[in-house]
Each structure stands twice: as structure tokens, then as C-alpha cells.
Amino acid sequence: MDDALRIDDLVKEYPIGSGRRRSIVRAVDGVSLRVRRGETLALVGESGSGKTTTALCALALERPTSGEVWIDGREVTGMSPKELRSLRRQAQYIFQDPFASLNPRMSVREIVREPLDIHRVGDSAGRDARVAELLGLVGLAGDAAARSPHQFSGGQRQRIGIARALALSPGLLVCDEPVSALDVSVQAQVINLLMDLQDEHDLAYLFIAHDLAVVRQIAHRVAVMYLGRIVEEGAADEICAKPRHPYTVALMSAAPARPGRGVHRERIVLTGDPPSPIDPPSGCAFHTRCWKAADTCRTVRPPLIELDPGHAVACHFPVRRDTELG
Amino acid sequence: MDQLVVSDLVVEFARAGHRVPVVRGVSFTLERGRRVAVVGESGSGKSVTALAVTRLLPPTASIRSGSISLDGSDLLGLPERSMEDIRGGRVAMVFQDALTALDPLFTIEQQIQAVLDRHAPRASRQARHDECLELMRAVGISDPERRLRAYPHELSGGMRQRALIATALAGDPEVLIADEPTTALDVTVQAQIVDLLRRLSDERGMAVILITHDLGVVADFADRVVVMYAGRIVEDAPADELFESPAHPYSAALLDSLPSLDGPRMRRLPSIGGAPPDPAALPAGCSFAPRCARATGECDSEPVLVTIGARRVACHHAGTA
């Protein structure tokens, strides 16, 4: 059992509207993925692509409509509240907004200690010692414990959130856009911290992001989502160097990356907005914005097929990097 | 020719009985029809500078000194009535969050019409409607007849930002100030909006000030980049020169900390230690010195912005790399 997290054919539907206008939106539509111990899988996509819903289902914070979720070899769906509580020791969540995710009325010590209190880990002195250790681990000074969250900058608050998530020594962290609310100069610090922690503690990360340049830095593998489905999956270097799905190609070309260095990237500007999951397009959901779309794409949904070992793409006409787009 | 001239601007905020300087002596010029990006992190003073130009500062802020002039006429001395003619007319703004910038109770057409009424009154109803249609087409909104009748919440994020740009264009501005116009949008839509702003600037000869924290957005857009840190300009350079060889250590560090999509991947991203300073407790001397790898004893004194070739830099070590 090397999988920290395994998701099989996950579907999550939400009811919307009421009475006659009642209908169903399928936020996640058959997603399968696995994150091995010590590995980072990045889940990439735009708003509405279902990446956060997938993450919430992964940690049993949402109940899947169908499909299975395994953490550390244990089936999560259908767990009793007591079992779920013990699951929390294995898997924790780091939130996007370090301003909203820390209780302003608690001290940093109380925030980081809370998981230890809930799970009754050690005695009081032992918990305080653990808090001091955790704060050191994420690069905060010892006197931080007595202060409250508002006295810290965004980057420091994110470190507090990371310390809290690490309190119970979990094997899996779900990081939901952990750096996108931070200033550019601070983003790099937090990315480096997450990478160091992974090396030291053999952590597995499910890393949710929309920024492919950040993903390339931190992830081993990448799964690209579009409207509730994975459209491309593979090794991070491979996806960034040779994206095969037109959507990934467009996402890469739109990604803000360091200009002025390296090869000039071909810019593809997609027309239109991401379609609504309430009324998804027929066939391939991306066909409405795709420059390669043909008749087949409007009617037949392409399955996710492994084109090269470890590199799967859901497209009828995958981009060939040797002849297209230089 | 310089159209907008900002000299020695100082803006302070009242906070807990103290005056906190957030813009500390900013000077820059904008030539007619050119595109300037103002880049900085939160608290750098970039948005406050823009709000000062349009005199839309919140009540807790005040302009302590400095001058802002448009085509030679002083904006800070104008009575509010005359400023209202300029704001939304010759100088228009686009904000980050189109959902809050647009009024939820009025249709897109009503909101564009309101600007037309104020700044470009047209005789007939039909002429004004045609103008609305044309503006919607100019910002690339398909099916403009239908979209004009829509309320903001009925449009997608990208469409709302386009509609907001259409209202800004209604006064036929000479200068457009766009404050983080792409930050709330998905990446593929961000690229569309930046392209749109560049095209509009070219077609209309409209100068644009783009305020952003995102250097990646700037590269494809700006002629010149102004980098701000802790309320001051630390570097002002032609865009290609800045990206090729940043002169200020902060500009360089900011560029280095951007992860790249091509080229070799580093095990660790170069990062800047610490965080931007609190404007109420600025370090003495160069504000960036506590985070700067090149800081020396000299940096205890505040460096002045000096012109080197086509750029301006405020660093004791600039040009000594």
C-alpha cells in the first residue's frame, strides 16, 4: 500500500434551484486519481472545474454522490463520525485564505494546539512543547505563540496554518491554493517551506492550484481538470514541456511566468469563458473553446487514454508537440 | 509629450491618531497613448497613487504634498465639480472586482448610458443606444443587444470585466487607469482582458496605467514598468530592459521568485526573506535593506531615485553589479 490517497470514479452532484426549476449540477464527473506517499499531485484547473470539490470529498468534508475514496488504505466514504475523527490524524487541510482560516480570537498557541487538544495527544506541557516545535518547523519565532493572528503578515499566517495542519503528524496534506493569496515575494518562501517539509516528513500533497508555473516547481505529477473531469494527467515536467490536451496548451500559454528568459512561448488566447457546469457542452466539454474542435468533439466525449507511459489525455486530436506549436 | 505628470506625491492615512505615509514622494510621467505598468506588493502604495490621480482617496487619506497635472492643468487644485468632468471622462478607471464596481440594480446599458449622459450627451435615444452597442462590440462582447439588457450578475466574470471596461470607455478617456483588472479572473480569461486593453490602447491612442502585483501580466503589455516598494518608486524602466536586466535588487528578486515554465527547474525558488514593512514602522534608510542580499552600511541612508540611461533607480548599489 503505497497510496496516501486514492480516488476511484468520484462523482459529486449538487441540487440547485427548487420546485420545477430544480435540477442537478455535476461538479465532479468521474475523477480517479492517486497520490503516493511523499509525492505531490497537483490538481490544476479554473474556477468551476471541480478541483476544490474533489479535495473536499477526498477528506470526507463532502459526501460523494458515488465513487470511492481511500486514505492510507482505508475506505473513507461511509465512515462513522468516530472513524472520521481518527482519519483527521492522517489527513489535514491547508486553506487558501490565511486571513479567514485562523480564528482571530485565539492566540497562535491555541490555534496550533487545538488539534492536539481535540485528539488528546500527551499532557498539557507536552502539547505546549509540540507547539513550540511546530512553530520552529515552519520558521516562526518562539514568541509567536503568545500573539494573535492579526499581528502577522499573510505569509506568516499561512505558516501558522501549516503548523496547525502538521500538529498531528499527518501523512497527507490537501493544500487548496495555499500561495495564491500571498504576495509574490512571499509565495516563494511558502513553496520552499512546503517542499522542505515534504522531504523531512515524507508528506503526500494534493496540491490545488491554477498557476502552472507554481505547479511545475512543487509537483511530481499534474492532473488538469476541466468542467469536473480530468483532461490530462502526467509527470509535471512532461506536462509542462509537452502538453498534449489543447486546454493544457492554452493554460500554459496564458500562465504568467518569468518573461524575458528562455524561449518565447507561443501565445494562445482562448475565446470565451469556461462554460457553466450547470449546462455543460455535449461531447468534449472543451469543444466550445477549442481551436482543433471537429464534429466528433461535439458529439463524442473523449475518454482519458494513456498516450505515453504515465501520460494520459482525454482528447480526440491531441496536440503533437513535434509538428505543432514549435 | 507628457500628458499626466505626478510630482513628489505624498499621501498619508490617519491610523489610530497617527499619520501613516503610504505614498512617499512618488514622481512619474505618462506620455500620450503609452502604456505604463505600476508593479508592487500589497502596501506598496500603487493603488493609493492611482486613487490620488482620480482624487478618489478614502476619507482617512489625505494628500500632504505634491502635484498631479493633466495636460498642464493642476488636478489637485480643481474644484470637485470640475474634477467630476475629468473623472470618468478624460481619465477613467477600471477596478479589480467588476461585480462590486458595477451596480447590481441597473442593466449594463443603463450603466453605460449614465456615463454617456454625464460626459458625452447625445441628442437622440437611438444614437445613444447605438453608442452602447458599439462600445460592447469594442470590448468584444458577442450578442451585445442581449447583453446590454442583462444585469451584472447574469454575466460571467470575464464578461463583467469587459462590460466594466465598456462603461469606462463611454466617456472616451485619454487615460485609463486599470487597478488589478485581471486578478479576480481565471488565467485563460486574464490573457483575454490584457489583450483587449492593449488593443483598445492602440486603436484609440489611449494611455493606460495598469496597476498589478503580477509581473507576468506586465510583460506582454507595458512599454514601461514602474516598480514600487514601501510607498516609493524603486525602479522605473522600459519593460524589456527591466525584464532583461533589473537594476534594483528588489526588482531582480521579484523576477527571480517567479517560477518559470521553461528552462531548468531549481530545487529551491530564490525567495526574498521577510515581508514588506508596515508603513507605520518603516526601517530607517532604504526600506528594502532589511530584506536585501546586497545591503551594506551605505543603505542606512535612503537612496534617491537617480536616472541611469533610460531608467530611474533608487539604490546605492545600482550599476555596480
TrEMBL record, chain A:
Keyword Secreted: no
BP-aspect Gene Ontology terms: peptide transport; transmembrane transport
Signal peptide stretch: none
Keyword check for ATP-binding: yes
Keywords tagged on the record: ATP-binding, Nucleotide-binding, Transport
Domain ABC transporter positions: 5-252
Alphabetical list of CDD domains matching this protein: ABC_NikE_OppD_transporters
Entry-linked InterPro entries: AAA+_ATPase, ABC_transp_ATP-bind, ABC_transporter-like_ATP-bd, ABC_transporter-like_CS, Oligopep_ABC_C, P-loop_NTPase
GO MF term list: ATP binding; ATP hydrolysis activity
Family to which the UniProt record says this protein belongs: Belongs to the ABC transporter superfamily.
Name of the protein: Unannotated protein
Source species of the chain: freshwater metagenome
UniProtKB/TrEMBL annotation, chain B:
Keyword Cell membrane: yes
Pfam families associated with the record: ABC_tran, oligo_HPY
Gene Ontology annotations for the cellular component aspect, listed alphabetically: plasma membrane
One function term, GO molecular function aspect: ATP hydrolysis activity
GO biological process entries: peptide transport
This protein's record includes keyword Nucleotide-binding: yes
Any coiled-coil regions, as ranges: none
Gene3D superfamilies in the record: P-loop containing nucleotide triphosphate hydrolases (3.40.50.300)
Boundaries of every ABC transporter domain copy: 4-255
Mode of membrane association: Peripheral membrane protein
Intracellular or extracellular location(s): Cell membrane
Main location: membrane
Protein name: Unannotated protein
Organism: freshwater metagenome
